[in-house]
Amino acid sequence: MAEQGGPATSEVLAKAMGTHPVVIRRIMAGLRDHGYVRSEKGHGGGWTLACNLAEVTLRDIYTALGCPSLLAIGHRSETPACLVEQAVNAALDQALQEAEARLLLRLGQVTLAALSADFHQRLVTCGATQTLEHAHAS
Length: 138
Hints:
Number of strands: 2
GO molecular function: DNA-binding transcription factor activity
Radius of gyration: 19 Å
Pfam families: Rrf2 (PF02082)
Distance between the termini: 18 Å
Largest sheet: 2 strands, antiparallel
Protein name: Transcriptional regulator, group III
Strand order of the largest sheet: 1-2
């Protein structure tokens, strides 16, 4: 979106990311609430960036999206009746907490500007042209 000449619609963003426009609108609403994007309605409307990429980190985005679960592994139940599950939870608690803390720390170190620079370097390396619809193609 940073290189777009104008607003990008939810439909265009959804196509680029291989998802449904409703998913994009839900995500973008959280980002808008934190001032990272803005939306314009009507013909020629869509989503645009409203932030300085050098000042926003992946942790900021994570927070804006409601702090979703970072790790797929975790407790199935906070107070399991199963003694084996209790033992596994006890054994993994510390490691999971440490892993999440490290991941959050790293997310706080990666700016959107750094991601943009990496993307552009990869684009140059593979000799591709950049369009939003094709930026996510493998």
